[in-house]
Amino acid sequence: MYNYSSSQRNQFKSTQRIRIFQWLVLILFIATVVLSVFLFNAAAFRSNFHESTVRNISFEVDSALSQVNSLSRTGGSNTTSVLSKIRQHVYAAKVLVDQHAALNKERLIPAEVFTQLIATLDTFEANKLAGQATLEQQTLLVDSLTALDGALDTLN
Hints:
This protein is mostly helical. The protein has a single domain (45-155), classed as Four Helix Bundle (Hemerythrin (Met), subunit A), CATH 1.20.120. It contains four helices and no strands. The mean pLDDT is 85.
């Protein structure tokens, strides 16, 4: 059996250590590249998600605004169905804002805005059913939805 000298054994161990170190550096480099790709994709997804959410909320607010503008000032026969469509669009916008807040930990629009809109819709409907004037609530709805649409435009 051949005995290695101590200097040859140390050189062999040193070569092994260098080789292991090189493999570790290579693995860490590959892991860094892979993580960079994933983080870049995640950032792009967040950006796209934010833009599409703002666009969808804006669509719902615009739809509600067009429905409010189609309301009859005299309380026509289709007012109840139009109010339900407005409520549907306001609720859809609220759900989109809540989803965005749940995923991104930030609210695009304060919850009080939707609470006020729904309260105005309730008052409008109550006045309509009681045969009272609804012009004030209709004006308030137009103003609130226009302000909300303007706020959404600044988010893009």
